[in-house]
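Support case: zinc ion complex. Customer-provided input:
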Amino acid sequence: MKCTNYFISKFEEIDSNFTYVLHNFTIHLTECQNVLFKLNEHKSNIVIFGTHYDSRTKATKDPILENKNNPVPGANDGASGSAVLIELAKVLYKQRRNLSCQIWFLFFDAEDQGPDNDYGIKEWDWCEGSREFVSDIDNFYNSATESFECMILLDMVGGVNLQFINEQYSTSSLLDELFAIGRQLGYTSQFPSNPDSTSIIDDHRAFLNIGIPSADLIINFWNNPGWSYHHTTQDDIIHISNSSLDITGKTVEQFIYNNYINNSDNLYQGNFPWNEDKNILGTEILITIIIIIAFVGIIIVLFIVSRSTTEKRIEPKE
Ligand SMILES: [Zn+2]
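Agent response - structure generated as follows:
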């Protein structure tokens, strides 16, 4: 419980009376703990920001055999989302009187121990903590007076070469909105116009199952030369980028300002509008090359034609 104590100390630095709830549960006799921090408890509509904070006990995808039983440091897969949530809490706390919603900062335990090549912890499934939380969610709010707006999950948001995917379980309108905001802020390579798509079993699913619109901001971790350290001992601080953390945080922050603000003075706005990707995609490069070749070809043909006409004009003088 050292980690949850650390979160509590960080939130108490923001406000010594920051409301929090510890949610204890056991998975196969192992004691686990989710932590929930609440901002603006007097507001009845709740926006949830979630992340898992546990890291995998075994580096089951490590390319080096003797590393496979070592723990994953989890700098990206665990710590990155947690770091962004703490910083978001600092920023949004300052704006709390301007906000028209309640915000939950929710840290899940027991997300990352399921089976890939092997189990993280034997017999454990993925996302145990979020499922336990949702099965007890009635204990954490008053369903007669409070309701949920949406849930935004941050998972692996701090790696170098950040590029989010179009996660297919996510509520598409919510994920589309986050992509649009990210692009408006200028983060067009992190929120690409043509993102990879797939479905990821992650902590947002438990919330979708009870009807809360939810989106997972996550990267391609299965086939990504830009960040190839998933479930290896190389998921460490060296492969983290401050700017990735910053971009994720500012996008989610702007989502709150766009939707839940009472007073629009002095709000952070990015350098939008940006409409085009800063990094040109492979297909676009190919199309550009084809156009250039075609253009050069036309010039060569015109040159040859003009030369032959000149030669013909000269002919009678011979
Ligand atoms: Zn993981």
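Residues 84 and 246 are 8 Å apart (CA to CA).

Case will auto-close in a few days if no follow-up is received.
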